[in-house]
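Moderator note: this is an archived Q&A kept for reference. The question asked for a predicted structure of one protein chain; the sequence and the answer are reproduced below.
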Amino acid sequence: MGARGPWQWCGASVRGRGHERDGTPNQDAWSVRATADRVILAVCDGLGSKPHSDVGAKSGCRAAQAAASAWCARPGASWELLVRLLHARWALDIHPHVPADAAATCVLAVLRAGEPIVLAQLGDGAAVVARANGGCHELHMDRDGFGNQTTGLGIARSVQEWRVKEFAPFAPGDAVMLATDGVSDDLRPDARGGFVRHLVACCTGVDGLEARRLRKELLDWPVERHTDDRTVAMCMNRGEAA
């Protein structure tokens, strides 16, 4: 759990039964970085068929943080510059591994004081904004040629394979959740906003959002025969308008 100003955040990742059985590492990763006026969330999922997918996922989170931080320091910079920088930082971070051998999906949220929420996604997973008034916004990744569930860092050939969208600024009581497909694939599209609010209710302790409670939710996952890794990173605005 972390807190700074109005921001409160937490994240957790659990290894799936399939990887426990095979003795392979968790191929998901997550990260949160906060300053006084912004929070950057990232989750990445290494593609299971790749030999260094766990390395690719961890590098993806580091690259997302570095690229988003640099992008925020250049007001007015296009989102294309953000994702190009992210790809370059990721490729450098995984060196000397071959990019295709460390391919990973990436979901990113940039929350800034008084600024629109920016969600960016390459590959599958989920990025959801649950509003205090009950509204819900999310990115929709489909197979229309612009967003592709099989793409990822190390695979994508164009920035147009990313889905990037802005939403109204983070308000008191709003929450953002990023998740890998080990979570998102088990959620009905019309239930995702409710799931975010459920997590907020279950994971809020005396001092705010608690990672241990989130981890328990992921360990007690109700879907039978689920074998994939499960990862969630979330942030809530508990104070004045951020």
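Archived answer notes: The two ends are 18 Å apart (CA to CA).
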